[in-house]
Design a protein that fits this description.
Layout: H1 11-16, E1 19-20, H2 26-35, E2 39-42, H3 46-62, E3 69-73, H4 78-84, E4 91-96, E5 102-107, E6 110-115, H5 121-131, E7 138-141, H6 159-167, H7 175-190, E8 194-198, H8 205-223, H9 228-235, E9 240-241, E10 245-248, H10 256-264, E11 273-274, E12 280-281, E13 284-287, E14 292-296, E15 312-315, H11 317-331, H12 333-345, H13 351-357, H14 359-371, H15 385-396, H16 406-409, H17 413-432, H18 440-451, H19 470-476, H20 493-496, H21 499-502, H22 512-522, H23 528-537
Helix pairs in contact: 7-8, 8-9, 12-14, 12-17, 12-18, 13-14, 18-22
Length: 539
């Protein structure tokens, strides 16, 4: 069985293998999207295919959507060549339940894959054609937070952004430059309205996207590439809207075991590939069942019936913001950041297995969410924080079939400790006068710093997960030696007092000294991390 339009015509074989096929006419909905595109998506990797593509697939099945999504890749063109084109844009969704049951479904909602490559005239002109369409209602994005960045930490332009500013719309390269170039096309075609919907997992994502779009447009106006009226067009949120969103679905990298199992069922060519740009991707995507997508309902040119999609909620901006803060600063992400790096130090590969087998780690995770987060969370109304946390601990976190690793949870962790811990610390200061009653969050911060030493609890070296601050932090902690707690002097103070990092000075908040003490105990020698964890968690 081949995952192609021709291959899925043998419905009997697929259904015998337990794989559900689209009930709608895939070719028809794809053709409709090509002629009259309605929904374009930038960043067409794993989370997009199974979550956003899965929502569209469900809407197509229900008959409330009549065309697929136009898929645009701005970064890794190998994804189009290796994952979209050979499979006729079909995807295979693998939902992993906690009891080991898997749901297999072929997704036919991905209508067309376009490379946003200005050096390829055919692809570039096709993209222009799409953006000139009056039918186009929304452009969504999963390009990661880094995709919106234009400047380095020191305020200077990133090299490729500088080149984009100098080269203008016709030679755009980065995602933001490509987008603004296409918005200029749309403006020239008739100033048609549009919603630009960031679905990336970052705070105030719509605001970040808008800021980057306006900055690029302003720089091009200065260079004479675009006119002042274009700037007015993209600045008017009644015409070009930037709805905020909250997104949540745990999507680990594709499992080689699942690839092998699919091939045993008879599906050919399922093995993951690693592209030239190090994207780890496969013809299938594996993920958990639960998902949440809260979207600000601001669509100047209309929108698909998104609210009918599984796990989708339409709301106002404030509700979206509160939902995102609930998830990122209290319920889910702080648990990951507090326990994931510690799990690496303790020698655990899988996050779920660690929680299921280590009583102290499970108790710490529960303390982060239930004891330290929920008392200060602001209820968004649309989702219950209590119910959200209950689902995490009852269904989502214990799911070992997901295969989510502690090392993945440690990726870019230094970029995230501020929003994930700092906000709760600040909320405790506001409510109680200081944050000294906290235990699990300071333990998580100490665990993150201990992880940065790249030596596990048995004294073995390991490689840190990718993180732009690795080098800086390792230099800061460089003369601290595991087994010699006396080597800890004042090295942590610049980190823990850094308000740019935590949005507050942890010493003023009443937790800086506690983190230092916990860290000192963690570097006492072999087994010290395990002992420190037990000491504070069982108090």
């Amino acid at each position: 069985m081949k995952l192609t339009l021709e291959g899925i015509k043998n419905r009997e074989a697929w259904e015998k293998a337990g794989i559900t096929l689209p009930r709608y006419d895939v070719e028809k909905v794809s053709e409709k999207a090509r002629k009259e595109p309605e929904w374009v998506h930038f960043g067409i990797g794993n989370i997009f295919r199974i979550f956003i593509g899965g929502i569209a697939d469900g809407l197509l099945e229900e008959g409330v959507l009549d065309r697929g999504i136009t898929c645009v890749e701005t970064f890794d063109y190998d994804v189009v060549d290796k994952i979209y084109d050979p499979y006729d844009n079909l995807g295979l969704s693998v939902i992993l339940h906690g009891d080991g049951v898997r749901e297999y479904k072929v997704l036919g909602s991905l209508a067309e894959a376009v490379k946003a490559q200005s050096s390829d005239p055919e692809q570039w002109n096709r993209l222009k054609e799409i953006f000139r369409s009056t039918s186009l209602q929304m452009v969504s994005f999963t390009i990661t937070e880094k995709g919106y960045a234009l400047q380095k930490a020191d305020g200077t332009w990133l090299p490729y952004v500088k080149a984009d500013i100098e080269n203008g719309p016709e030679r755009a390269n980065g995602a933001m430059a490509v987008l603004v170039a296409m918005l200029f096309e749309r403006y020239q075609a008739g100033k048609y309205p549009l919603a630009l919907v960031s679905m990336d997992n970052c705070s105030r994502n719509g605001e970040k996207l808008r800021e980057s779009v306006l900055t690029m447009a302003e720089e091009w106006q200065k260079k004479g590439f675009v006119d002042a009226d274009f700037l007015a067009y993209v600045s008017d949120e009644q015409t070009v809207a930037f709805p905020w969103t909250m997104i949540d679905k745990i999507t680990p990298r594709p499992s080689e075991q699942i690839a092998a199992d699919l091939e045993k069922l008879g599906v050919e060519n399922m093995q993951p590939v690693i592209t030239g740009k190090k994207t780890y991707i496969a013809p299938f995507v594996n993920a958990e069942k639960p998902q949440y997508l809260v979207i600000e309902d601001s669509f100047p040119n209309g929108r698909p019936a998104l609210e009918k999609g599984f796990g989708v909620y339409l709301a106002d901006r404030n509700t979206v913001n509160l939902s995102e803060r609930m998830k990122v600063t209290v319920c889910l992400n702080p648990v990951h950041s507090a326990t994931g790096p510690l799990g690496v130090v303790l020698g655990y590969d899988l996050f779920a297995h660690m929680l299921n087998t280590n009583e102290d780690m499970m108790k710490m995770a529960r303390m982060v969410a239930y004891d330290e987060g929920l008392p200060v969370v602001e209820d968004p109304g649309i989702l219950s924080p209590q119910a959200f946390v209950d689902e995490l601990f009852n269904d989502r976190f214990p799911n070992e079939y997901l295969g989510d690793t502690n090392l993945r949870l440690a990726v870019d962790v230094s970029q995230m400790v501020g929003i994930r811990f700092g906000e709760t610390i600040k909320a405790h200061v506001a409510k109680y006068g200081n944050a000294s009653r906290l235990t699990a969050i300071p333990l998580g911060i100490a665990g993150w710093l201990r992880y940065m030493l790249a030596v596990d609890d048995e004294g073995r070296d390991y490689e840190l997960a990718p993180d732009p601050m690795n080098e800086e932090l390792q230099e800061q902690l460089g003369d601290i030696v595991v087994g010699k707690p006396e080597t800890l002097k004042d090295q942590l103070k610049p980190v823990l007092s850094n308000e740019r990092l935590f949005f507050t000075d942890l010493y003023k908040a009443g937790v800086g000294e506690k983190v230092e003490e916990m860290f000192r105990e963690m570097i006492a020698g072999k087994g010290a991390v395990k002992a420190t964890l037990h000491k504070y968690i069982q108090k």
